[in-house]
Amino acid sequence: MSMPLLETRGLTKLFPVRRGGLGERGLLRAVDGVNLRLDEGETLGLAGESGCGKSTVAKLLMNLISPTEGTVSFQGNRIDRLSKNDLFAFRRQVQMIFQDPQASLNPRMRIGDIIGEPLRIHRLAAPGEYHERVADLLRRVGLHDSYANRYPHEFSGGQRQRIGIARALAVQPKVIIADEPVSALDISIQAQIINLLQELRREYGLSMVFIAHDLSVVRHLSSSIAIMYLGRIVEWGGRDAVFDHFLHPYTEALISAIPKLSPETGSARIILKGDIPTPLAPPSGCPFHPRCFHAQERCSREIPLPEEKEPGHWAACHFSEKLFRGNGFC
């Protein structure tokens, strides 16, 4: 097997927090033992409910925050061991598109300067080429090059996200981490941004980690999918394997919630009981068992470890074989 482009092993992030009226301190387990792999040219979709730790994983992959335990490696090299020069090169090769296009753009900078700043930092354009490079990037994401002289507040949410995409592309990265890039946009604009990302991925040969809570969007963009719940990866495999032969009850519930064209299409929606447990005090055993409609006594005692249930298809469930044998399991 070839070396992964981006890989995590046992990735864990704890945040100290205060809880209770007496200022008692606790640890919030935002990410818990996450193993992920992104290969060259692949789009890995990371999906799960809000608050499950997806955005924290994105920040860890970008080295914006440091893990409490575990490692992130890029092209076989641990990023926490990179020299200053190598870390500078890593910053160029791995770029991020943020969830909120308004908050991620400096309101005091013109659009041309926002997109051009990475070119200056990494010295990728000669003085005479700078403005033309910015204009090319604007045109490539569907914006007029005259917009370079305007400020972020003059644009719609979809246009601001296009500006963020142009900024990420400026340094010709190998990997794009897209953290919920369409969740703050209208439905019609979401489709435009998703199509743009697909075009750019093919044109520039990008590898991508696409983070979202909407599984229909994830399926449209991704070649492999990881399902996350309460800081853990509960299922991971090829796109079609996860959607057509899911091996975890949480994945089953998420897929059942995707809107259908008609009531007769697909299975009935599964309504999960209870609320998502707090990562300040996760439940014993399987983190999903308090809400799982298939839970048994063992689930409350033992944490299921991810196992390769089928070739290239992993799940963390004690009873995958029993529950989903009729779902294409072999």
Plain-language structure description:
- The chain is globular, with a radius of gyration of 21 Å.
- It has ten helices and twelve strands.
- Helix content is 29%, strand content 23%.
- Helix 3 crosses helix 4 (130-140), helix 3 runs parallel beside helix 5 and helix 5 (157-169) packs parallel to helix 6.
- A hairpin with a 2-residue loop joins strand 4 and strand 5 (77-78).
Short description:
With 330 residues, the protein is an alpha/beta fold.
Descriptive keywords:
single chain, 330 residues, alpha/beta, eight-stranded mixed beta sheet, four-stranded antiparallel beta sheet, 23% strand
SSE blueprint:
Layout: E1 6-19, E2 24-38, E3 43-47, H1 54-61, E4 69-74, E5 77-78, H2 84-93, E6 94-97, H3 111-121, H4 130-140, H5 157-169, E7 175-179, H6 187-204, E8 207-212, H7 215-221, E9 224-229, E10 232-238, H8 239-244, H9 249-256, E11 307-310, E12 313-315, H10 320-324
Parallel strand pairs: 3-8, 3-9, 6-7, 7-8
Antiparallel strand pairs: 1-2, 1-4, 4-5, 9-10, 10-12, 11-12
Helix pairs in contact: 3-4, 3-5, 5-6
